[in-house]
């Protein structure tokens, strides 16, 4: 259980357009144990998707990965591999599920062809019939009835939820060690969301796959994940076990994020609070802590505007956390009192 | 699929019907009596009215229309007033030259547009992209006949690389034995490689000049489509499966990007097949375009009318083929989507 599936160290990704450099991912480090489920939470534009693509080496120009190591199985650094070498890893050891099922499948190819392709690209010698049989099995595994027949359908003949199941079938086709799911349920309606999440839950359990679940929905994190990392302006500002973030959120941003989740018990407190202000422009990052301009704690403190906080390791009521805040120790002590 | 074919076929018949009505009405709206026009100002009134009767001008309008379209579709296109030859024979003689030029020009247009659109979009290459876009604007803005003259000055007059405006072959050459009457094809069939090469050389400049503006149009369309499609999430998904960049591009980006281009390609081919008066003039190309040009100058209405209607029919046919191809390639056209499962 404790062996590492994936270890990311100091990953930074930028997009360089003519005038500006957008720092989408800034010095991100985390570990993912085998079969662990890590949720990465943050607002839109916080760099979550860029992080996912950076891990897979799929950042397209004008973007590029500046620095960092991506260690697979605790050893091999895949960040320096050529595209050819990475292709052997993508889909085989690290797989990807994207947000919008309506555009994640090629509209002019059959569902079957798209699943078969995911299998045969890593097993070039496989016979057509055998690959097709495996594809049908995968469709059955994601609960699509009459799988054999529906292989010959096109994506527009499937509903949104079914397309997302197909995307999941493609992702698990080769039993990957790590599955990166980028907002896999965001585009679905609520009941379909629950079904797809339950399916994902069952499959990663069976296949013993570690998952990085990217989402902005803390509810999904609490249901699905073992650990959580809160992303703000390209950095992971708080990383911990999943209980910690709900019991003693230590970074002021995590706390604010949690307050924005609708909760029937707090209806009496009036309208849902929102975090004031906007996330910083990733092309013009402020000095010091990126959250300082919006932070209820550090808004007026010169230190927060001048000095970039180091990661602080703290122990809260629900275990350890790594928090990038000057006041992490103080805040966790206050919460404990 | 049968439903799609049926609908498209009905649409095409409707379009041809519309074109015949239009051509017919315009002819009737022209001032003057066609019989008088044929016989000239010195003919007697009696001669005019007897000709009117002979060609059915005294019949009710719907009978005239019926005779008009049944004659057209049976290939009875009348006779040229200026030299008395049947229009069918005149157009038949000229058509292979125009068709051959159209095919070569179309091939050049498609190949160049696809090649350059790929070069400017596959991978991030800002400089190539800028050059291709610049070239396409230039091509779009340059009148084809002007480009034709420019090409002649550079490649024929200055550098003597390619033949001048002398038609399909050099003056001393004999055409290959007529089978298709497209010289490059016939020369190959007869095994005359020298003649093939000569015919081919004569095709290069006219093909370029004829194709340039369509090329500019297609390259821009294709470039925009390729850019759009390569940003689609399903390309990322394909790469995520472990497909190499080019494989993902070839299998998933190209087919989707080509779909809109297919329609445009059909329009371009239809335009080329109708012949270009200006390009054929400049290169002394003995095609339908120059026949029609001469006919207009000589007020030879039978030729002009037939040509207009023929172009319309051909245009409709090309587009019918494109629509059917579309249905074959794009399943969303062929198979209705499930309302919501």
Main sheet record of chain A: 8 strands, mixed
Total helices of chain B: the number is 15
Task: Tell me the helix content of chain B.
Answer: over 70%
The main sheet of chain B comes to:
none
The count of strands of chain B amounts to 0
CATH class of the largest domain in chain B: Mainly Alpha
Low-pLDDT sequence parts of chain A: none
Based on CA atoms alone, the radius of gyration of chain B comes out at 24 Å
**Overall 3D geometry of chain A?**
globular
Strand content of chain A: 15-25%
Any guess at the CATH architecture of the largest domain in chain B? Orthogonal Bundle
Q: Indicate the multimeric state.
A: heterodimer
**CATH-assigned fold name of the largest domain in chain A:** Rossmann fold
Give the helix level of chain A as a range of percent. 25-40%
Q: Structural class of the secondary elements of chain B? A: mainly alpha
- Computed over alpha carbons, the radius of gyration of chain A is 21 Å
Report the average pLDDT across residues of chain B.
Answer: 89
- Which percent range describes the beta-strand content of chain B? under 5%
CATH homologous superfamily of the largest domain in chain B, by name?
MetI-like
